From TrEMBL, chain A:
Pfam families with a match to the protein in the record: ABC2_membrane_6
The species this protein was found in: Clostridium thermosuccinogenes
Keywords assigned by UniProt, alphabetized: Membrane, Transmembrane, Transmembrane helix
Protein name: ABC transporter permease
Upper classification of the organism: Bacteria, Bacillati, Bacillota, Clostridia, Eubacteriales
Transmembrane segments: 20-46, 58-76, 108-129, 135-161, 173-192, 225-247
InterPro entries registered for this protein in UniProt: ABC-2_transporter-like (IPR010390)
């Protein structure tokens, strides 16, 4: 049963994505091309003087962080919030596929379509030119999976707040800004003062795009990379537990007093 | 089996601003001590004015909203446990809150929803085609984006989707909203036949009394969360002293006598109108014939809508 659903969810999202050709073009421009161009100009023009990175290296860094940020982040919180407030959640509660699985599968399906369309070519070209080892690719893939788990959990936690709050768009907007800044997507984290860096490294945000990027760019020794991945795993687990607990409490409230 | 509801209550809270930084919590009893059964093969029509508690009852019986007290069983199960079997057997349609994606076609959406129930592509397409025939929906509309369909065409899509899993228990909130007469009639026939053929239990709320009259086995009238009437539709007239209306023409010289005998009679030009109980009909007709010859006699039972309205006003 689930295999049929997964297959149809991917097909559904692919059909939806390619329905409007202008959406595909705008999605590429808005999600990837324009942020990359702005980031490259910003880093090259403002902060490259203080870095040991060459300009090609900076371009690769920016492309990678932006690609990984788009792959691992989701705006699922807005759909959850809409469903809670509009009673669409009622349909999902009575569906054989649990709401949680429904959200994640549909979101991953659209991610898969976008990844295969836009992102994989970037990653393949970079991996080829950077002469990345198989071990590095393996470590990168694992770190991307952890990044996805962290990104989805944070989004899910914010979406779940809709059980108590009328609007979550403000929190969602803050989340996007904080994560973009502290995940190293807007600027590389190493340009920050050391004490600020040490604080940011203690949060889950760098695992969303900075860690996978730095692993792929070979800035970690294998042992160091495994240690970083292990910490990411702990963050991922903690956020998953928190999101599940919040969801269960929220559903009880939804079932007892409605919205 | 079927649906068994015993003494359910539901209270909602809301806030009222009592100052710039102050608000007061207040409560409203949405449902008060409601009990009913819907056996297999039966359709319960749920009627009441806006805000009477109909949708709250539907939400509680379908396992979406917990009652404060009381007990609900759907096919022998607690709906709030939401077991796999319960979810496979149940379907919900909230008429004003559809689940059709505006950018996709009914076919595409059905394939996704049907696969949640483990149905194969051919089975899903067969069911959707079958439903579109029953609902008088042109097949080419199944391939169009639902945003370009009319309200009625979208509602037919919602109904097709609601029955894709061959449910045994169905909760329908305003299922004929926006439909033309022919389509509403088709849906009523479909629901009646589906219920009989599949031994299903249906709870239906509708402001369209033709829906209720044509297909409901039992009627539940709700006012401010309380049960005003629960029983067979055909027994509803028994709730009224005067449940039939006689209209006739009588010789004008006999009118005075007639008015003495029946003080509540209304005379409008040549026509006399008198409301009485169905059980007294024979006796009254005998009395009338003894007074004089009556012509152009018509006997009308009270309209369902009038009876519901009177019951709601009376309580």
């Amino acid at each position: 049963m689930n295999r049929k659903f997964y297959h149809n969810a991917i097909k559904f999202q692919a059909n939806l994505f390619f329905k409007y050709k202008s959406y595909v073009a705008l999605s590429f421009l808005g999600d990837l091309a324009i942020p990359i161009i702005i980031n490259v100009l910003f880093i090259v023009g403002v902060i490259s003087k203080d870095t040991s990175y060459s300009i090609p290296k900076i371009i690769i860094y920016v492309v990678l962080t932006n690609v990984l940020f788009t792959v691992t982040m989701t705006d699922m919180e807005n759909r959850i919030s809409y469903d809670i407030r509009s009673y669409q959640l009622a349909y999902k509660l009575l569906s054989p596929i649990s709401p949680l699985r429904n959200y994640i599968v549909n979101d991953l399906a659209i991610k898969l379509v976008k990844t295969l369309t836009f992102y994989v070519p970037f990653l393949v070209v970079i991996a080829f030119f950077e002469r990345v080892s198989v071990m590095t690719i393996l470590l990168t893939v694992i770190s991307i999976l952890i990044a996805c788990s962290i990104g989805y959990s944070i989004s899910f936690i914010i979406g779940t707040l809709s059980f108590w709050l009328t609007e979550i768009w403000g929190i969602s907007a803050i989340k996007n800004l904080v994560i973009a800044a502290f995940s190293g997507t807007i600027f590389p984290l190493y340009i920050l003062p050391e004490h600020v860096q040490s604080i940011i490294y203690k949060t889950p945000f760098p695992y969303i795009s900075y860690v996978p990027t730095s692993i792929l760019m070979g800035e970690h020794t294998y042992i160091n990379a495994w240690n970083t991945i292990l910490t990411g795993c702990l963050w991922s687990f903690a956020l998953l537990v928190l999101s599940k607990v919040l969801w269960n409490i929220g559903i009880k409230k939804y079932e007892s007093v409605g919205v | 089996m079927g649906i068994k509801v015993k003494n359910i209550n539901k209270k909602y809270h809301y806030y009222v601003n009592t100052g710039l930084f102050k608000r007061e919590k207040r409560y409203i009893n949405a449902v008060k001590d409601v009990s009913f059964d819907v056996n297999n093969g039966e359709i319960l029509g749920l009627v009441g004015s806006n805000g009477a508690g109909k949708t709250t009852i539907v939400k509680m019986t379908s396992g979406i909203l917990l009652p404060d007290s009381g007990k609900i069983e759907v096919n022998g199960e607690d709906p709030f446990k939401k077991t796999k079997k319960f979810k496979k057997d149940v379907s919900l349609l909230l008429g004003q809150k559809g689940k059709l994606h505006p950018d996709m076609s009914i076919y595409e959406i059905s394939l996704l929803y049907g696969s949640m129930y483990g149905l194969s592509k051919s089975e899903i397409l067969r069911r959707i085609d079958e439903m579109s025939e029953i609902l008088n929906q042109e097949k080419q509309l199944l391939e169009k984006q639902t945003r370009s369909l009319s309200l009625g065409q979208r509602m037919k899509g919602e109904i097709s989707l609601a029955f894709i899993n061959n449910p045994k228990v169905i909760f329908l909130d305003e299922p004929t909203l926006g439909l033309d007469d022919k389509s509403s009639r088709n849906i009523r026939v479909f629901l009646r036949e589906y219920c009989k053929k599949n031994n299903a239990s249906i709870i239906l709320t509708s402001h369209n009394l033709q829906d209720i009259k044509d297909i409901s086995t039992n009627l539940l009238i709700i006012k401010e969360g309380r049960v005003v009437y629960l029983g067979k539709i055909e027994n509803l007239p028994n709730e009224f002293d005067n449940n039939v209306r006689l209209s006739f023409t009588i010789d004008s010289s006999k009118r005075e006598k007639l008015e003495r005998l029946y003080p509540t009679i209304k005379i409008d030009n040549d026509r006399c109108h008198y409301e009485c109980n169905k059980n007294d009909l024979d006796q009254i007709l005998n009395e009338l014939y003894q007074i004089s010859k009556i012509t152009e006699l018509t006997i009308e039972e009270k309209e369902l809508g009038n009876m519901i309205e009177e019951l709601l006003e009376r309580e």
